[in-house]
Amino acid sequence: xxxxxxxxxxxxxxxxxxxxxxxxxxxxxxxxxxxxxxxxxxxxxxxxxxxxxxxxxxxxxxxxxxxxxxxxxxxxxxxxxxxxxxxxxxxxxxxxxxxxxxxxxxxxxxxxxx
Amino acid sequence: xxxxxxxxxxxxxxxxxxxxxxxxxxxxxxxxxxxxxxxxxxxxxxxxxxxxxxxxxxxxxxxxxxxxxxxxxxxxxxxxxxxxxxxxxxxxxxxxxxxxxxxxxxxxxxxx
Lengths: 114, 112
Description:
Helix content of chain A: under 10%
Number of strands of chain B: 11
Shape of chain B: globular
Strand content of chain A: over 45%
Largest sheet of chain A: 7 strands, mixed
Distance between the termini of chain A: 37 Å
Largest interface: A-B, 25 and 24 residues
Structural class of chain A: mainly beta
Oligomer: heterodimer
Helix content of chain B: under 10%
């Protein structure tokens, strides 16, 4: 079974630009969640999509948005980039249930904002 | 509020035993997870606890006390490859749906 695929692996942008990150979950997984990881803050939850609907949202400004397609692939968009948006963005997929419902993470997109 | 605390860094010697603690305060609780993350790589699942007690998986064990809001990850017979960050995460049910709250991670260095 192929793992979670995130593209691109690295991105360099300048302040004010916008960026779109992509995540392809494990086949059969309907839940995709996104996290921002920085050295000081750890993994911060951005949002979760399940069957094309945003099921949960973290405490990030509206510049961060996402969507999920019918094939469960998800995209995350950040508009009007700020220096503080420099981070590793991880997506994770799961079947979206409970119990020992582990998250499977992609390798992440390392975003640098100059 | 929601808060997960774990030590920032720990150092241990190859062959030894190390215990990484995690305390949490969340509005709801539906399970505690431990993930391992090597530098530059994705986090990978290690263990899951939803009931009080100890879960053992080979060299790794995880303990949970829900009344104390406390968990630990025990790593035995440490190997150099265990040098990584260990993330404690709680699945919170406060909003009526499930949300994973992560701690900032404990960076473990295993010395020869």
